Inverse folding.
């Protein structure tokens, strides 16, 4: 697994141990759910999509379509889309909203 600035750069499922919830696992990793969703959106947005040209489909260099990569990571395309929308929010606005939600 590659890391950039101490962050996960792949879409592998976050390993869990025992009966912890996803939120507990994220908290242990020092991430809030919204921050994790934002990072998933950033990674998902960077994944290459399959392209159709003249009736033929060209797969990304990974050899599989984006939807399959997401599925392998345990994500639906609709979840990935929501995460991409979160990732599109400007950083300053995201931080203000995240702090407000965490304080409530």
């Amino acid at each position: 697994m590659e890391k950039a600035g101490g962050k996960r750069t792949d879409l592998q499922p976050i390993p869990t141990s025992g009966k912890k919830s996803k939120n507990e696992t994220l908290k242990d990793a020092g991430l809030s759910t919204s921050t994790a969703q934002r990072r998933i959106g950033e990674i998902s947005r960077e994944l290459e999509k399959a392209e159709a040209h003249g009736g033929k489909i060209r797969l990304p260099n990974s050899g599989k379509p984006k939807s399959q990569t997401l599925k392998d990571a345990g994500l639906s395309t609709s979840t990935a889309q929501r995460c991409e929308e979160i990732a599109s929010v400007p950083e300053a606005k995201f931080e203000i909203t995240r702090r407000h939600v965490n304080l409530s």
User: Anything to note?
Assistant: The beta strands are 3-4, 7-8, 51-53, 56-58.
